[in-house]
């Protein structure tokens, strides 16, 4: 008797189903893990390496190609600054801005969505009306106007990006709450005399948080794209602090002779965005079963 025939029929069916789910979900999970691991190594390990300095200039060693000098594995830029050091710090700055902005957006959208969805009526109309007005204004153009008026710094970018990207969270949370408030467990809590705050915190919040986390993973890539675009046109992170968009902008002047100055930060942007997208897909897949 073979090992396969010795297994109960039901067990074989469950094992086959488990293998199917594993094969369908593994690629995005593995890719997300690899991309995020590379990004985290760049952002938090490279700046700790001995001898790394993202601002030190050496004009005699400017435009050194990658792998030509052990002291500069990814080469140097037009001012002789180490590309690997600048790439690590720029990735760290982009990650901190993205995570901070997403946290602000998620918090604002979560609160507004919970209130609008549960209370309904005029409050729902007013809050969603504010969101509709903001959606009617292109986010990038709005940020360009705000940054040009208020100035630019990492802290200010976090606040502005957070305040201009909450609408998606608010609309998603509102839609979920509109469905959840009709469920029996919410009706039972209302009948028992539970307060609105208690229902929102104990029943509705825990049911919408998984979707908010999935959306947050997706929005990290969106925010990184916007931040890199602003830095590319000179309205994002300002020198001497390196940023991925600024590195791409500086490198395009030498695109024909030293293309690595543009390719290296562009690959870092791709890894950040793709890692966030694959992470959101990997997080969402188990909930679809």
TrEMBL record:
Keywords: Cell membrane, Membrane, Transmembrane, Transmembrane helix, Transport. Its main location: membrane. CDD domains: TM_PBP2. The keyword Repeat does not apply. GO terms for biological process: transmembrane transport. InterPro entries: BP-dependent_transpt_permease, MetI-like, MetI-like_sf. Gene3D superfamilies: MetI-like. Belongs to the binding-protein-dependent transport system permease family. This is ABC transporter permease.
